[in-house]
Design brief:
This protein has about 375 residues and is mostly helical. It has helices at about 5-15, 20-25, 30-35, 45-55, 65-75, 90-105, 125-140, 150-155, 190-210, 230-240, 245-250, 260-270, 275-285, 290-305, 320-330, 335-345, 350-360; strands at about 75-80, 160-165, 170-175, 180-185. It is globular, with a radius of gyration of 22 Å.
Length: about 375
Amino acid sequence: MEVVNAVRAFREQAGLAQQQLGEAIGVTRQTVAAWETGDRAPSLANLTKVAKVLDISVDLLLPDLAHQAEEEEMCLLFRADKPSSLTPALRRLLTQKAVDYASIERLLDEVPALPEQRPLKGYDAYIVEEVAQNVRSWLGVSDLTPLGDIFLLLESKGLKIITHPLPDDVSGFSAYTNELGAVIFVHSGHPTERQFHTALHELAHLIFHRQDYRNSSEPLSKTLKKDPREKASDHLAGAVALSEQILRKELHGYQNRWIPEPLLADLKLRYGISMRSVLYRAAQLGFITKTQMGQQMGMINKKYGHHHEEPKLKKPAGLSRLERLTFRALLGQEITASRAAEILGQSLNSIRMNLQQWMEDGKS
């Protein structure tokens, strides 16, 4: 990808107009337009500014490294519910983030991981429930234990979780290679409970549908909700977050009864799953009818809108695994502070402050 195409592609990916990008880096809109048409070449200093504003590595804008990035991109096998959303620019950006993450793992002798496969064609509720129990056991939680920070749990098993702004209608992607391990990309702008669900949904695809990653452009059913792969993955995400045993304990007094919203809100806060997902899971296991589920969801939609609900679930506290590994590499002088800032997408000042705080907290 030439600089001409790269600047335009990543600018559009970030949702910025030429005028906005120009103002952010101190040049005119006409200058940005000239770069994008090839009438003028940006200096390295300006490319560095562009990369900082767009929150990407400057390597992605340098033409002499394009071939290397394309080779890395070819190695990472992606899967997307909406393949058209995985544009070449977004694919390269996410690939770069995964490669950066893997480079830190290699420096610290961390072993990349993939979940155990359980290929599933179509949709089989019994198998999904069985695999959900196995996943909870693999994560080290009992049938009645809340998962807590799902990102932390998955990363404790060596999976890479990367949060990043994505197109509004996309919750996440996943990708893998045997060398890099599994990577789950989650929309950083979505509510916490939706981010957790997305991570488990993509985990399900890595378990059930790994063969599909070689054909990431293969179209799904006309309606995603009717696609058996999506149904199986949504089912697994809900079953891992809210086991049948948990529901029996929490809803034993509400069999075929209206579930009060305060109870739904309490379950959301304690188990990290949306009120809508609680209702869906309750209907799935026969605690309530599908008609009641639809009625209660309709009331929630009317009250909060189709994509939001109260109370809000807090974001995970503490550092991500990538931040902890990067700080370890920085303290061990394996990388420079500027490289740490580039990998984490933070300023040098933020790196210093967060590193100091991490050290004061006992490197937990």
